[in-house]
Amino acid sequence: MPQSPYFTGTLYARMAEDLHLGGMSERTHAGYLRAVRKLADYCQTSPDKITEDQLRRFFLHMKNELHYAHGTLRVAFSGIKFFYTRTCRCEWQTLRQMKLQHVKSLPEVITCKQVLQIVLAANTQRMAVYFWTVYSLGLRMQEGLNLQVGDIDAERGMVHIHRGKGAKDRYIPLPTSTLNRQHAPAYLMKFGAAVPVGHRKVISSITRCRTGELGGVAYRCDDCGRVHWFGRSCGNRHCPGCGAEKTTAWLAKQTSRLLPVQHFLVTVTVPDRIGAVLRAHQRAGYHALFDAGAASIRDVGQATKSLRGCQLGFFGVLHTWGRDPTVYHPHVHFVVPGGGVKLDDPGHALAWQATPDNFLFHHGTLVRVYKAKLADQLRAGGLYDSVPPDAWQGQFVVDIQPVGDGQAVLTYLAPYVHRVAGHRPKGGRRQADRGGRRTIGDVFLHAVGLAPCPDSSRNRRGVRSWLLPARTAARPAKGAVLRLDGIPLQDQLR
Questions:
Q1: 203, 184 in Cβ contact below 8 A?
Q2: Is the pLDDT of residue 2 over 70?
């Protein structure tokens, strides 16, 4: 720091000691000492000999003639006040009366296009990776300068930030896009031709999402005329950064269709050896899983005393993994209202017949029927002979849980309808501590390989519905409202 002939020696050292005793940071040290040095140069005398009137003129000089920014004025005022109250012990009225107006200005934010230009201007791959990391983490300048390779914990998906704002350390999550750019090349090189073309397209889309490589959109502000540029999103349903709007719309639509009755979540799964057959033949396998579960619910429901003679309506959502995304675990969640529409002999809807709040139908019966239905569906799809005979002796897990009004389970299922690979596995930190989990980046890319539905699937989102009947036995049109005696069913049940 440049020295002043008027602010040196014992006085300078004493203020520096007071700053250290006050626990001030190095940047605060430099700013406060610089403010007192400028005051001494302006008055051309030692700061301990300056009068209160000279101090007033110096503040007016900075504000009205030099037009210092608000932040610079605040640092100068704080530094000079610290010197006269802590080092020289002066109780001047000017220091107590002076107030600076609090100004909160918006920070200058560069556009995605400008970020891309900065990254592409990097001379080495190391610097390009550094820029991408700092930008994707949203680090401040000083935090980016203090960042070390060892601070990035890919196994836990966390980054250790040293001496952030207020000299505080903190942990922040590592964005999936950063992990993908780090792990995608090695993942594709490791598995080579074994990675299907569709999976390669998914990985390519996710790693380029909102980077500007997919193009961009420019918006002009009507007030200031400034142009804002944003990189296009990939729109891929496997991208954790896309699909939020579609998810919200789907959740709102399904919520409006909920009946004001008790709902149940029925989950059907398959043993691992049958799951391997489904993975190898996804189109026919997923159709068999859906149709077997739906037929089982319909048949067991109509045979149950509380639902006898009733028509059920429900929908199902396909999941291809559980809590651990590296394990292929196909299963379907069916959301079933606790009741059905009572029909007469011609098939006309008569009334709503509810089940008890804690019972839908017998669990053991559903397991036996589902097992037989799945075998029939696999035969129809030509997959039964591919299943080892002893695989049918495995455990067929079928679960029936009451879920209240159904709103909570819809919220749980919604992210899987339009976004399938955005959830961090539970227990990741504990398993990483035991050394039993690969890095989160590899986990994510492996999960992407499990998630894509076959192109020829009837519904690529993995959602199928079995609707309640209309007034007649005919299938209701899309968006139709079920009515009994001309009154919507939802209104009758309220």
A1: yes
A2: no
Using the 8-state DSSP alphabet, how is residue 63 labeled? I
State how far the Cα of 111 lies from the Cα of 221, in Å rounded to an integer: 14
Q: Which domains does the chain have, with CATH numbers?
A: 9-97 (1.10.150.130), 108-237 (no CATH), 244-419+462-493 (no CATH)
User: Per-residue pLDDT tens for 324-372?
Assistant: 666 788 899 999 999 888 877 777 778 888 888 888 889 999 999 999 9
Question: What is the spatial distance between Cα 469 and Cα 477, in angstroms, rounded to a whole number?
Answer: 10
Residue (of 174, 184, 235, 228) closest to 209 by Cα position? 235
Q: What is the CA radius of gyration of the chain?
A: 33
* Sequence-ordered list of residues with C-beta below 8 angstroms from that of 319, at least 6 positions apart, any chain: 329, 330, 331, 332, 333, 416, 462
Per-residue pLDDT reduced to its tens digit, 138-163: 888 888 888 887 887 766 667 888 87
Q: Are 332 and 293 in contact, with CB atoms under 8 Å apart?
A: yes
d(CA 406, CA 193): 44
- Under a CB-based contact definition with an 8 Å cutoff, are residues 466 and 313 in contact? yes
Q: Sort residue 442 into left (φ over 0), alpha (ψ -120 to 50) or beta.
A: alpha
Residue 126 backbone class (left: φ over 0; alpha: ψ -120 to 50; beta: rest):
alpha
Q: Which residues of 318-341 are buried (b: 16+ CB within 10 A; e: fewer)?
A: bbbbeebbeebbbbbbbbbbbbbb
Residue-wise pLDDT for 438-480, tens only, equals 344 555 555 555 555 554 344 434 566 655 443 333 333 334 3
